[in-house]
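Before relying on records like the one below, remember that each one covers exactly one chain. Contacts with other chains, cofactors or solvent are not represented anywhere in the record.
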Amino acid sequence: MPTERSVQTVGEIEEKFKASPLIIAANYRGLSVSQMSGMRRKVREANSEFKIAKNTLARIAADNAGRPESKEFLEGPIGLLTTEGDPAAAAKVFVTYLDDNNIAMTIVGGALDGQVLTADRIKALAKLPTKEVLLAKLLGSMNSPITRMVMVMNGPLQAFATVLTRIVENNGVAAGATPEAESEPAAEVASGEPEAEAAPAVEAEPAEATAEAEEEKSE
């Protein structure tokens, strides 16, 4: 008979599997308590979680969650990274933290939206831009032609507005200014050819205790 704790653990892992587009399995053998704590804090910054559970319970949770592909890498002392955020960001934070801190944790494999990933493919995923960066690039490429078109259209409008402003100013001076003040503008109006200013040029946009002591040993 499964214990109440086992049932609860299966339910928790099942919910993580359902909510996470990305699952990464890593062998945590030899990891110290402080290293494990630091890594867990870091991945939380990417809305992710690293959890250790018995493989038998994780396999049951994988089936219940409709993620049977995850059972392929549930062997040995495995910890599971799941995320409710951007998969690329989660992979980047996890892989980068391991590399930067020389943590001897071996990535075993993973799954992304039902597709099994090897360790190499997970590392390749970690090198991709995050969703925010990709969206910014996409919006930038969409907006650039529009921005250039607006600038091109604004050029003649600015010149036309300058001509109108000159005419209004000249007429105002002719109506109430002294002869000395109106002499030059009057000559300009009389000529019938007010000079439009050129549209401004558009510039280009430029031996420590290990984590195994704190976690249940995987079956």
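The longest strand covers residues 106-112.
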